[in-house]
Amino acid sequence: MTQRVQSIVIVGGGTAGWLTAGIIAARHQGRMKSGFTVTLVESPSVPIIGVGEGTWPTLRSSLQKMGVSETEFFRNCNAAFKQGAKFARWTTGADDDAYYHPLMLPQGFTQVNLAPHWLGGNSGRTFCEAVCPQGQLCDEGLAPKMITTPEYQAVANYAYHLDAGKFAGFLQQHCTTKLGVRHVLADVTRVNQSERGDIRSVDTQQAGEIAGDLFVDCSGFSALLLGKTLGVPFKDCNDVLFCDAALALQVPYETPDSPMASHTISTAQSAGWIWDIGLPNRRGTGHVYSTRHSTDDQAHDTLMRYLGPEHAHLTPRKISFRGGHRETFWKNNCVAVGLAAGFLEPLESSAIVLIELSAKLIAEQMPANREVMDIVSARFNDVTHYRWGRIVDFLKLHYVLTRRTDNAFWRDNVDPDTIPDRLKNLLHLWKYQSPWFFDEFDRLEEVFPAASYQYVLYGMGFRTEVEPGENAGTEAMAARLMNDNVALTRHMRSQLPKNRDLMKKIFEYGLQPI
Amino acid sequence: MSNIVLLDSQSHRKLRVHTQAAARFGDNQRFVAVVVNEFHVLAMHYPILFSKDADTGQFYCGAMLGFDAGENLFLDEHRALSAYRPLNLQRGPFLTSGPDLAIDLDHPRVAPSGDQELFTEAGEPSNYLQSIMGLMRDLRPGLERTRIFIDTLLGLKLIEPVTISARFDDGVNREFTGLYTVNRDQLKELADAAVLDLFRRGYLQLIYLMLASLDHVSVLAQRKNRSFLP
Q1: A283 forms bridges with which residues in the sheet?
Q2: Using one digit for the tens of pLDDT, what is the confidence trace for A320-366?
Q3: Low-confidence ranges of chain B (pLDDT < 70)
Q4: Mutate to test the interface with B, among A145, A148, A151 (most CBs of B within 10 A)
Q5: Can you tell me the distance from the alpha carbon of B211 to that of B168, in angstroms, rounded to the nearest whole number?
Q6: Which of A216, A320, B148, B190 could form a disulfide with B194 if both were Cys (CB 3.0 to 4.6 A apart)?
Q7: Which whole number is the average pLDDT over A35-39?
Q8: CA–CA separation, B96 vs B137, rounded Å?
Q9: CB neighbourhood size of A91 (10 A)
Q10: Which of A65, A82, A178, A235 is catalytic?
């Protein structure tokens, strides 16, 4: 007899647990009447780590599909707009060294690749400026939409900065009251397995035994189910990405009306980098660094120097982490999502987007029964491996293009032995052709599209050779698109409000659903 | 820009106000906010739609009077009092502040040459001022009723965007965006209980007045085309 997959048990209740619960429950609402259940078991005593305050635009559709009101989300999670990231001092370390990785695609990206046209021209503009308005919007502190723009719709593509601790609580409320997710506050004391190794149930101290057909491990770094119970080892990637500690500090604004950036500011330091993100009520900052290249005291001084003497009385919180991921993500009837699957430095806000993509894949490919589960899990592992690999490559890209030599951290980062072969090959290839379609980033849901590679490569001064005559066929179209971009930039700058002003209006009036 | 003060029978005893419709007095609006109490008379002349306040993003109801910014195709009728003039145009320089009447002293209608006095020789409110007080008694609760009507429709997902676009005899294609109307398909899908509730609250009638009023768009377009005739 086939064993149907009807009851999903999620262990762990942080961002990963509740996002996964919400995405699965929303996708399978129709089956709830016929016995499909989503149960989330959360320890009443384990604190939420609250990783990542940066997200990708995918979160907009994830929240919308779950039936969340964007206005409520802004108000309850201290969320704010994010239009991309500004990377300062990554290339030369000089004061004026900075580039944007915006969230808008280059103009006409699906029709023509503007990169060779920009490379072959001499407009005097940066790549980002030449192909999309968003860098200038960020420079001027403008919001990506207006108060009349409906919820989840954008004038300029956007994601969010958010308070991860509040986000988990907000999702919990939504999942339990609107989506029928069962919430069990209990400590898991024992994991019960069948003969072939499947997880049959978990025993809990407060709520007895909880059985399930599919278990999702969202238990954080401890990886209680996939790691501890099923013995899937952790694969370290510290040989590629050196950072292994962070000092995090929440910083108040000077006044409640101080301007707030609508982009993440990432400023390179001698042995790592500092993040700086604007929430409505505070800034979230932190210094990510390599303990092989910096002492904790040095890192502390670096962060405090960045923040200035007015914040000298604040004490940052240290978080140590091991960059890497599980060797496999779905084993038997257990799949890991979030920190239980792995963690990488938050340079490109990959944590939450990876949770969404994993949860969506589980929800969309939900195996009907145990017999077909291994087919689905093999796929899931293949795709998820690919994603982690691409994220590692993309993060490393930020380091290998540096010309900084002021610290062994930067010199070690360009050591070819620390660069994954795949990235090495791509860098070789990109000397002669720029990434676009037909490159290998062709998966249905690529974490970072070819456009992201373009923004980082050409933002950091990488040059791709342009063959004589290569641009001839698309010259007119490219010129038109670049002119369109100038007009669009002018239009958006005249139309869009200041980021702070729009946030205040959202708190006061809310955004309309349509 | 504006200088709004509470109306006072002593300090404002000598004020006079222009009441006739004219572009220079601010009647040149292509879309003017209206309240649900007016729908039945508005629907005889104008398309009634929803739009969003540019400053707050909140929905409001409005009557469409023209196609281009600053174009009121009904100015003549309003001046001749031959077509209903929306309350928001009738109220001229007056506003309410809680239960009290306020006036914008910098409004172009407030001038010594105005055709109406506010107070009589004896210091009593003039007939004109009394009519304004009456108007405000309609307008103030009307705003609240309109807000509840809109919230109800939003909750039922009954509001949808609509773009009014037409090609005119001057060869120019005009698009009027940022407008919304009632979603007919969604209306048909409503559960019986919701329909009954809308009916009992008088909202079903308002909805059908709005939908029927959309036919005035073509009448408005003909009116505009006539303005291109030599």
Answers
A1: A251, A278
A2: 999 999 999 999 999 999 999 999 999 999 999 999 999 999 999 99
A3: none
A4: A148
A5: 23
A6: B190
A7: 97
A8: 10
A9: 20
A10: A82
- Residue A118 C-alpha from the chain's centroid: 28
Whether A50 and A420 have beta carbons less than 8 Å apart is answered as no
Question: Residues of B numbered 159-188 whose beta carbons fall under 8 angstroms of chain A's beta carbons: which are they?
Answer: 159-161, 178, 180
CB contact under 8 Å between A147 and B56, yes or no, is yes
| Token output for A266 | 């990432």
Is-contact A263 A138, C-beta < 8 A? yes
> Does A148 sit within 8 Å of B157, measured CB to CB?
no
Closest CA to A46 of A202, A163, A227, A218: A218
How much is the pLDDT for B129? Answer: 96
Both structure tokens of A322: 């091991």
Q: Can you say how many angstroms the Cα of residue B93 is from the centroid of all Cα atoms in its chain?
A: 15
Residues in CB range of A514: below 8 A, 6 or more apart = A150, B154, B157, B159, B160, B161, B180
Q: Given B55, B160, B178, which is nearest A514 (Cβ)?
A: B160
Tell me how close the Cα of B30 comes to any Cα of chain A, in angstroms.
19
Whether A82 is catalytic:
yes
Residues with Cβ < 8 Å from A466, sequence gap 6 or more? A116, A119, A120
Kindly list the residues from chain A whose CB atom is less than 8 angstroms away from the CB atom of residue B160: 514
Q: With 80 as the cut, is the pLDDT of residue A27 above it? A: yes
Between CA A68 and CA A64 the distance in angstroms is: 6
For residues B96 and B52, the answer to whether their CB atoms sit within 8 Å is no
Structure tokens at A124: 């005097």
Strand B173-182 versus strand B59-64 pairing type: unpaired
Interface of A with B (CB under 8 A): 146-149, 505, 508-514
Task: Give how far A511 is from chain B: nearest CA, Å.
Answer: 7
Q: Are the beta carbons of A509 and B57 separated by less than 8 Å?
A: yes
- Cα distance between residue B142 and residue B155, in whole Å: 20
A267: tokens are: 């400023």
Residues in chain B: 230
ipTM of the complex: 0.87
Contact A512 B52 (CB under 8 A): yes
Residues of B whose CB is below 8 A from A508: 56
Is residue A61 pLDDT above 90, yes or no?
Answer: yes
Strand partners, A229: none
- Sorted by sequence, the CB contacts under 8 Å of residue A364 that are 6+ apart come out as A27
Q: Determine the residue type at B45.
A: H
CB–CB of B143/B33 below 8 Å?
no
Q: Decide: A27 and A363 in contact? Cβ < 8 Å.
A: yes
Q: What is the CA radius of gyration of chain B?
A: 19
Cite the beta strand spans of A324-370 per DSSP E: 324-326, 330-331, 334-336, 342-343
Nearest chain A alpha carbon to B158 = A514
- In total, chain A counts a number of residues equal to 514
Whole-angstrom distance, CA of residue A318 vs CA of residue B40: 67
What six digits make up the tokens of A388? 């982690």
CA distance A114 to A123: 13
* Record: contact A512-B59, CB cut-off 8 A: yes
Look at the block and give the residue holding tokens 């910096």.
A294
What integer is the mean pLDDT of A65-83? 97
Burial readout A143-173 (b: 16 or more C-beta within 10 A, e: otherwise): bbbbbbbebbebbbbbbbbbbbbbbbebbbe
Provide mean pLDDT across the span A199-218.
Answer: 98
Q: Which residue of B has its CA nearest to A146?
A: B57
